[in-house]
From TrEMBL, chains A, B:
UniProt keyword list: DNA-binding, Transcription, Transcription regulation
GO MF: DNA binding
InterPro entries (alphabetical): Cro/C1-type_HTH, HTH_LacI, LacI/GalR-like_sensor, Lambda_DNA-bd_dom_sf, Peripla_BP_I
Source species of the chain: Nonomuraea guangzhouensis
Protein name: LacI family DNA-binding transcriptional regulator
Domain of life, per lineage: Bacteria
Domain HTH cro/C1-type: 5-48
Start and end residues of each HTH lacI-type domain: 4-58
SUPFAM superfamilies hit by this protein: lambda repressor-like DNA-binding domains, Periplasmic binding protein-like I
Pfam family, one: LacI
Length: 329, 329
DNA sequence: ATGAAAGCGCTAACAG
DNA sequence: CTGTTAGCGCTTTCAT
């Protein structure tokens, strides 16, 4: 009761395996009669192609590997990205293999995997600036794209991302339009696109008013949002707005503000970024910037597929964000 | 400049491919001299085994597929589970392929994939009661385990989970110990283990006091927490505590309570479940029940590996939860 | 302890 | 249009 092979199908249809292979691969040059007989034989035997055999001879892997770079963040966004990538890849009959590149051992594992020809392409997620794996991967000659820019490698690794800078500008402009005068910012880590570009967008709008005193750096965590806000409050007691580069950090800032007796948004307006699940669980609910995560994932896959199909190069793309106004600002 | 094969390694070492294969697979019966020569040749050539070829002859897939059932996809917990599963699987050189089974088409795709022998085992996540795919999968004779019980198939699909019922008991006992008298509950969907068993644990402790009036059903979303709380308040205005089966629903309840002018925890104590990222972003931060998610994922993989290694059957396991006391109760 | 050889299931080039 | 054939790279007897 072994699984049927192409041989069994051929026997059942009374036709050679070569022809069976042809109909399997949608080749032209197959007589209708043969095609019908074979299709019936396939249905009868319950035949399913053996990918190992197929990929062995085709010298392909039949899969794409998504590499998650460790550090912490319990980013609720990952799930959306993964789902959309799977969907899109599935349409092309490519499977999605997940790997983690958190420490050197794991990075080595990814490299071995990819160099071993086990993947037809690489989908990077949240890769850090200066990650040595990136160049090695790229040097291996395998298609590599990233969901979100890879800082320092923007020109070598194509990517799809949301318009980080533009999104931050939207928020900053909104805060200004609401009459806020002293607007502070809690940025993300400065070796990530979200950390860098959201600050740039903020500075675009505030100009010289975006003084050093009004900028604090966080690491995307709730705790870092709390401490950054505390420092800001100490330095600039009369600030009347703060833009946190993520909803999670914004929720931390909210805690500190409440502890300090500031009312939100009356005394201090608070803006977030991501529109993650956290945004509606805070009090007050966060005014934030929504990223078109699903679209970003789909576009990333599109770039990867183009590369796999042989495109010499593809153009990175930034998708527009939208401002979601709730009660915090 | 093709990738080196086992043949190249053999040539470089001046030894037959058979022996090279032996050292590759840690076979005994290889002379130290040969082993050393081969290992050097492997390093020199940069050889990496071709999985397609290996799996073809071994009649294995070399991967495990994790099947995500659609709906509660926003669950921040997925990421932790995925991470831990990848880690554990990686130790055995198995890769993790992700698939989604949200609609019939996708379920069919999963079935084809698995029946096609493309996976050595199946790791189910958040599968619904009555999902037809489960029986088919199990009937296909491939090892299948679930992270969290599959309602109605607890005895046929082995699983690892947290002690849902015990965790709910912890929360209920805590609320009672704090002197709360009228304790309500917002459950999850009653076709999920978390929905059913957390209610059971609640009832274990409250006994007859867990009357119908005090129970509302939610669907894990923030919005359902809001409306459930509203109904509860209308029915039992003098309730003094509420236990929501998830942090997200608890955050919804918090909103409704605030809108109704109830203070938390003074007037109404609120308990959650999961200790997800939402738990610390609410105001006040949630007292909740923590699930040992990483351990659950690891144990699930352990069961699957045992099955793959030929175990006739394995025992499901429930891991203890812990009560995390914050300010909401 | 190791070499030789027979495939694993499939595709693709080549005749016809 | 279709049958035949030569591998893809690796593991695994079977001899030796």
């Amino acid at each position: 009761m072994k699984r049927p092979t192409i041989h069994d199908v051929a026997a059942a249809a009374g036709i050679s395996r070569g022809t069976v292979s042809r109909v399997l691969n949608g080749d032209r040059y197959v007589s209708p009669a043969a095609r019908i007989a074979i299709e019936r034989a396939i249905a009868e035997t319950g035949y399913v192609v053996n990918r190992n055999a197929r990929n062995l001879v085709r010298q392909r892997a039949g899969s794409v590997v998504m590499v998650l770079s460790e550090p912490p963040f319990e980013d609720p966004n990952y799930t959306t990205t993964i789902r959309n990538a799977i969907r899109r890849l599935g349409e092309r009959d490519l499977s999605l293999v997940m790997m983690i590149a958190g420490d050197d051992r794991e990075r080595e594992q990814v490299l071995r995997y990819v160099r071993g020809g086990h993947a037809d392409g690489v989908f990077l997620l949240s890769t850090h600036a200066g990650d040595p794996m990136v160049d090695t991967l790229h040097g291996a000659g395998i298609p590599v794209v990233s969901c979100g820019a890879v800082i320092g490698r923007e020109t070598v690794i194509p990517y799809a991302a949301c318009d980080e800078r533009g999104g931050a500008r939207q928020m900053a402009e909104y805060l200004v339009s609401r009459g806020r005068k002293k607007i502070a910012m809690i940025t993300g880590p400065m070796d990530t696109p979200g950390g860098i570009q959201r600050l740039e967008g903020f500075a675009d709008v505030l100009g010289r008013k975006a003084s050093k005193k009004l900028i604090e750096h966080g690491d995307w965590t709730h705790a870092s949002g709390e401490t950054a806000m505390a420092r800001l409050l100490e330095r600039v007691p009369d600030l009347d707005a703060v833009f946190a580069a993520s909803d999670v950090m914004a929720s931390g800032a909210l805690h500190t503000l409440r502890a300090a007796g500031r009312r939100v948004p009356e005394d201090v307006a608070v803006g977030g970024f991501d529109d993650s699940s956290v945004a509606i669980s805070t009090h007050p609910p966060l005014t934030t910037v929504r990223q078109p995560l699903g679209d970003v994932a789909r576009e990333t896959v599109r770039l990867l597929l183009a590369l796999i199909d042989g495109a010499e190069r593809v153009d990175s793309i930034a998708l527009p964000t939208s401002l979601i106004v709730r009660d915090s600002a």
